[in-house]
Amino acid sequence: MAREIELDPVDFITIGTVGPKGKRVFHIQAGRRSQIVTLTLEKEQTRALAEAITEMLDDLAKRYPEKPENKLTFADMNMELHDPVEPMFRVAQIGLGYDEGRDLVVIVAQEMVTLSEEDEPVDIQPGIVRFWGTRRQFRALGMRAATIVKKGRANPRGNGRLIYYWT
C-alpha cells in the first residue's frame, strides 16, 4: 500500500542541504501543525524546481492581477530546515499545480522506487506527498532553492575529487 500524505495548507515550506560542499544532500521540507515531512531531492531537481516555481508564479501574476502576491523578504520567513531532518523518501518525480479557486500552489512529489529481483512491479506503489501553500510561500521557496543551488562548489565538474595531470 502506497503512503500518501497531504499537507493542506502548510505552515511552512523550505529547501535546504545537509553536509559539506561537494557532498551536500538536498531536502525539501514542509510542516503543518506538529507534522513535518522531509523528502530528499537531487541538486538538478532543486534547480529545476526553483526555475519552475518562478516561471509559474510570474505567469500567475500576469493572468490574475486581481489576486496580488504579497511581496516578501527572507526576513519575513524562517527558511532553515527544522530538526530532525529525517527524509521519508527520495523524490523520483516532482510537479507543480495551482488551484485557482483556493489561490493555492501545490507540489506533488512521487517516491523513487527501486525494485529487487524478487519484487513484482505490479505490487510496488510509490509514496506520494502533496504540499499546498500560498503563492507567497512558494515565491520564498523558489528564491531559497535558487540560492541554495548557487552555494555549491566553485567548479562542480571536479565533483569533490582531486585530479592530477602529468605532462
Summarize the structure.
The relative contact order is 0.25.
Notable characteristics:
alpha/beta, globular, 7-stranded mixed β-sheet, 167 residues, single chain
Shape: globular
Overall number of domains:
1
**Main sheet, how many strands, which sense, barrel?**
7 strands, mixed
Strand content: 25-35%
User: What structural class do helix, strand and pairing data support?
Assistant: alpha/beta
- Taking the alpha carbons of the first and last residues, their distance comes to 58 Å
Summed up, the helix count is 2
Strand order of the largest sheet: 1-7-6-5-4-3-2
Q: What is the β-strand count?
A: 7
Radius of gyration: 18 Å
Instruction: Give the overall average pLDDT.
Output: 85
| SSE arrangement, N to C | EEEEHEEEH
Helix content, binned percent: 10-25%
Low-pLDDT residue spans = 159-167
Written account of the structure:
The protein contains 2 helices and 7 strands; from the N terminus they run ββββαβββα. It has 167 residues and is an alpha/beta fold. Helix 1 (43-63) runs antiparallel to helix 2 (135-150). It has helices at 43-63, 135-150, and strands at 4-7, 12-18, 25-32, 35-41, 89-99, 104-111, 128-133. It is globular. The protein has one domain. The N and C termini lie far apart (58 Å).
